[in-house]
Amino acid sequence: MGMTLIEKILANHSDKDVVKPGDIVDVYMDVRAARDFGGANVVKNILDNGLSIADPTRTFFTFDCNPTGSDQKYAVNQQKCRDFARNYGIKVYDIDAGIGTHLLIHEGLAYSGSTAVTTDSHANILGAVGAFGQGMGDQDIAAAWANGKSWFKVPKSVKLNFKGKKPANVSAKDIVLNLLKEFGANTLLGYAVEFHGEAIDELTLDERITIASMGTEMGAIILLFTPNEEIMKFSEQQSGKKLELVKADNDANYDQIIDIDITKFIPRVSRPGKPHDTVEIGEVKKTKIDSAFIGSCTNGRIEDLRAAAAVLEGRQVAPGVVLKIVPSTDDVWNQALNEGLVQIFKNAGALLSNAGCAGCAAGQVGQNGQGEITISTGNRNFPGKQGKGEVYLASPAVVAASAVAGFITTPDDIPEEPMVFMPKEGAEKIKSKTEKKEQKDKPKVIEGRVWYIKEDNIDTDMIYHNRYLAITDINEMGQYAFDNLEGYENFAKEAQPGDIVLVQKNFGSGSSRQQAVDCFIPLGVQAVIAESFGAIYERNAINAAFPIMTYDTLKGLDLEHFDQIKVNFETGEITNVTKGKTVQGNPFSDVQMDIYQRGGIFS
Q1: Can you name the residues that pair with 446 across neighbouring β-strands?
Q2: Which CATH architecture has domain 445-598?
């Protein structure tokens, strides 16, 4: 009895001549990679367990989750990986390279019959070139880096025989959406699925990548394609060596063999929340959208960008709609530039970013906000995956057409005039619904425990770091006050209602962020006293009715940390109640006192 494709690959990379479903084998990994997402934890596992790297020439970092370096946590993790790579001679595909799994194919590291593991759950995309790829957790990858191999349970195999010719209006994305409709998210759970048939043989590498990339959404271990002659030539060119085609034996034993009539496939869209909840496009046509996204490991290829450009050329993105386009690799980006696609995208009003995973990884363009409706070429639309809004999945051509129309539609049904946003009913009544706040006299004299921080130039990033700027609820801000000020990282935990903060020169310098004022309010901090304030910070505090006051000198106050102090906003007196000493500060101006008593500039 012969072996299926997955069985042959695993047997060729183990000490077994033959393997069968259920066998557990140690599999040698031709490639072992980690992304910026999870890479730092791989490094930590290596170092904490005193491990070495089995073969640095087969070990790689790929920075594709946040290739803009826009998130400081990602930036820290990336630098940890870079430092580790320098010390151990590991190659880094840095933020200018693109999606790691695509790079493995383009760099000739993954090809027919090869094996690879990465921290990417879509590593099974390598099935597009007939390779075995698997996503793993941080500990698994660290072990693979140290041992050069990893254990696997040989999966059962399913063979899909595609009958007939692919309809002209059906894209590779439509093929996988039709398969999701047929098999759902778990019918093929745990299987290695082989694709066969004339329609499959004719698929390009880009099309195979699109389909293989959504094997995870189907619950499969991997979707495997036997490379055709063109793809074998590509892999040989990229790898620089003669390759042997690895394919299933004619007498291989499959758990199931399923015939599929591809002529019945139609363009489809996945409704928000579940990739397998796919419907014919007509069911969701005219759904108004806020944004559109073309990219991800599923549809960031040059053929995808060409399909989008064919729709966008000579057209404009609908008013109020944002179209974001992210190529899969830098090579694809440059090819789009050379072919004039970039100019088409810019002329249409699209935003084009550098190569990477984009919105799927929450680290780059492509995220959406609460209530936002997005149509995307991504592989997942789970709640919260691409932001707080709702995400429909579709092909690049459909996404581009929808961006132009302002609603979900097909390239052959784009209206002359786009759908525009209309004011929501009742919006004009907002002002009339505003209730006046009851005004109460605020205390002109306060007393409390003092935090005496003897530092100048405490900037707004020290007070409230920019990694928390997405928070809009003032009640959530307090926990982050001073967490970037060295020595005061626990301020929020230790502060008590009624405390007063007293600092030195230029408090609140830096950015214009209101949060650096507001973060003290939920903690019950009564006031900040400083020798001087940053100009913007001073205005922000006064307008928010948060008490701030200045002094010229504290000489004679004999102040120590946590002394009890009294502050008179009207006279400017600052009294150390603990020591019974007083100095003269600068009282509130008439304007500041007026805004303070009114409860803020809006009152």
Answers
A1: 567
A2: Alpha-Beta Barrel (3.20)
Contact 481, 495 (CB under 8 A): yes
Instruction: Say if residues 530 and 507 touch (Cβ distance below 8 Å).
Output: yes
Structure tokens of 508?
Answer: 């609140």
Order across the sheet with 351-352: list the strands.
Answer: 278-280, 268-270, 390-393, 373-376, 291-294, 322-325, 351-352
| CA 13/CA 553 separation, integer angstroms | 75
Distance CA 535, CA 460 (A): 12
Listed by start position, the domains of the chain span 5-264, 272-413, 445-598
As given in the structure block, the two tokens for residue 203 are 């698929």
Kindly indicate the confidence band of residue 431, based on its pLDDT and cuts at 50, 70 and 90. Answer: low
- β-strand partners of 194: 159, 224
Encoded amino acid at 484, one letter: N
- Nearest-angstrom CA–CA distance, 257 and 270: 26
Whether the full predicted model's pTM is greater than 0.90, yes or no, is: no
DSSP lists the bridge partners of residue 573 as 584
For residues 524 and 497, is the Cβ–Cβ distance under 8 A? yes
**3-state SS class at 30:** coil
442 is written with which tokens? 């605020």
pLDDT category at 433 given cuts 50, 70, 90 is very low
CB 374 within 8 A of CB 353: no
Helices (H), 421-498: 430-433, 460-463, 474-477, 491-494
Cα 198 to Cα 203: distance, rounded to the nearest angstrom: 9
For residue 323, how many C-alpha atoms fall within 13 Å in the half-sphere facing its CB? 30
- Contact 152/24 with Cβ under 8 angstroms? yes
Among residues 532, 524, 535, 548, the alpha carbon closest in space to that of 596 is found at 548
State the DSSP H helix or E strand holding residue 158, giving kind and residue range, or none if neither: strand 157-163
- Do residues 226 and 247 touch, judged by C-beta distance below 8 A? yes
Q: Is the pLDDT of residue 305 over 50?
A: yes
According to CATH, the topology of domain 272-413 is Aconitase; domain 3 (3.30.499)
* Cα angle, residue 35 at apex, residues 34 and 38 outer, rounded to 5°: 85
Report the C-alpha gap between 497 and 410 in whole angstroms.
59
Fold match between domain 272-413 and domain 445-598: no
Q: What is the pLDDT of residues 26-56, one digit of tens each?
A: 999 999 999 887 888 899 999 999 999 999 9
84 vs 23: CA distance, rounded Å: 35
Is the distance from CB of 120 to CB of 100 less than 8 angstroms?
yes
CATH code, residues 5-264:
3.30.499.10
What's the angle, vertex CA 208, arms to CA 207 and CA 211, rounded to 5?
A: 90
Angle between helices 172-183 and 205-212 (to 10 degrees): 30
